[in-house]
Amino acid sequence: MKEDNPSNTFLANKHGTSLLSATDIYGPHNENFIPPLSISTSPSIRPILNPIRNEYESPTRLSKALRCCSKDSIKEYLVPGLQFSEDRRKTHRWIFSMYTQFCEVMEYEPWPLSEKPAYGFIKLMGIALQYSISTIRDDVISSLKAISRYRTNSPVPETVSHKMLVALKEVKLARKRYCLSEAYGKKEKEEAEKWKKEPLIVPDLCWILQCIPDWCIEKPREASLFLFAISTGARSHTCSHIKLRDIARVYVGENSTMMKVTINLVHVKGMFNDDHCVTVEGDITQKQTLNVVYWLEQFLVEEYGLSLTLFDEWKLGDLGNQFIWGIRKGAMRKRLQKRASQAGYPENIFGFHSLRSGFICSALLKIGNHMERKESVLETTAIIGRWDEGSECQRRYIKKAEKGTIVANRIILPDEVVESDEPFEKDLSTPCVFHNIKLKEVEWNNKSIIDSFNFIVLEYIKFSCSRLFYPYSCVNRLNNIAANRFLKNRSITKPKDISSIKYSRTIICEDLLSESFDIIQIVHQYLKGIEDYLDGKVPMIFSEPKIKPKLREQRAINPLFNRPARIMWTPSEDKILMEKFLEGISFKEIATQLPNRSPNSCRDRIRNIIRIQKRNDKFNEETRKAMPDEESNIREIAEVEDDVPVGVEEVEKMLEVEKDKA
Length: 662
What we know:
By secondary structure, the protein is mostly helical. It has 4 domains: 6-35 and 81-180, Orthogonal Bundle (DNA polymerase, domain 1); 197-443, Intergrase catalytic core (hpI Integrase, Chain A), CATH 1.10.443; 446-534, no CATH class; 571-661, no CATH class. It has 26 helices and 7 strands. Helix 24 packs across helix 25. The longest helix has 28 residues, at 599-626. The chain starts with 21 loop residues before the first helix and ends with a helix. Mean pLDDT is 76; it is low at 1-19, 29-56, 544-553 and 628-646.
């Protein structure tokens, strides 16, 4: 693989191994074709993303970048070409390999994209292979269009695009008929029901938040997150990417405690640099279950020490890049499902997207029988939730709310026969009736209590140990001392066969479940017995040998994530490492000859080289078995520059010897 020829750039994974090159997928290089530019280089070897601190008073991004990067690191920006993310390249490689195999079997010319093979390929994937509709719509069709456009340097004809959409509609219709047929058995129906999520309306969220006890330290975080999502219809992908700097404006009216907070939603579906503003309102002084501004204020103060009342005085700096809630989108769904289960709801009845459907359903239920306001509700929710007004995508959310709360015979029968002449009934919007379920008892078991308690105690002890330069092994010792003194101060004698920590947890659970204490008061009581140790008045006696300071790699700080940037290994370092290791020199001595490398880094690099070499050997062997035909258009795998071929068995034996010595 030539470095200076981007047309030969492999669409490779992070280890650089792939069956298909850019030329295979996007076609041969010619004057009218601009090949894609690989941007898979990690931030650690792109120092332009990791500028060092500049001594100038007001440096620009460019000045900081040019001071710390070399010419070689900027060369990739001088090469013309299109940029693709790693995920998109993987998708192109996957779709290209399947479509070309399909065309070979059916004896069609794959490129340029034509109606008949594209139509048959989509129907095959949707009906026979049972790929999801979203995968076909978002990945398959878009990748086929992109690859065809890059190979032919011309847009896909409208007739071909229309034919693929027709195939997608026929796949949807075929699946619907199959679900209604007798061939769709009980097992398939039960499996399909698992993926159906109910809309989480406002009464549901109110009950879930009320069931979270006040001593739960995560309540402000979760309450502010869930209330913001149901107030704006934001997806988990959007909420997980909101940063502190995205809080754009805080407005407080004169002689009022009502506060309006405007937040920029940058990441929305299909867009990664949007500027969609939403505003939420609430009384910052009133502790109410559904007051989103109150819970947001409590969370920001506890987590970051920032108050919305002092918004004009915020000086965030690098803290502005911090994600507000700090939870990944998958964890958001799990947290909501866990809280719903603890509140008595059936397992997996909700997903985080239920808050989005609950947003528009709750808006429809709020207007009740004022149907003349329905179009207004559809318009305003479309603006907030980024729907096309009145589209099928928007209306499918409200079908559940409409069908579940309308009393049918009120529409036709006279008033003296029915209870009311209003078609909507509010009693039908309660959680049990709306979802047709029976709530179980609220379950906050001992494990949930202990998890919250342990988190506060251990974080405080860890912080104190780092402040007083105690080794990390003292955390458990201090925790044991705190448990003993907690029981002693309460004049409680523990059984002989039970540890103090375990028995003290039993007492703590009883206190919290009896609602006679809150968790913060008990934490203070628990830690009161080790104040002298934490304040340094009583020195800790260490039985372990003196801990020597470990060699740390000197790394530049990545300002985007506020953490050390990883330094990639160079081929010259790998060569020195392998030579010294094969000579039998210890990792500690090798680290002295490699600047900014610790013994642990040298050991891990040796293991990575062996693992990659093994995988490449196995992959090559499987490829030869699977593709014996010499006329196959699959190319050989390019050799990775920073992988040094070694004798795997020999190095493994030496690693075992080093391990035994340690």
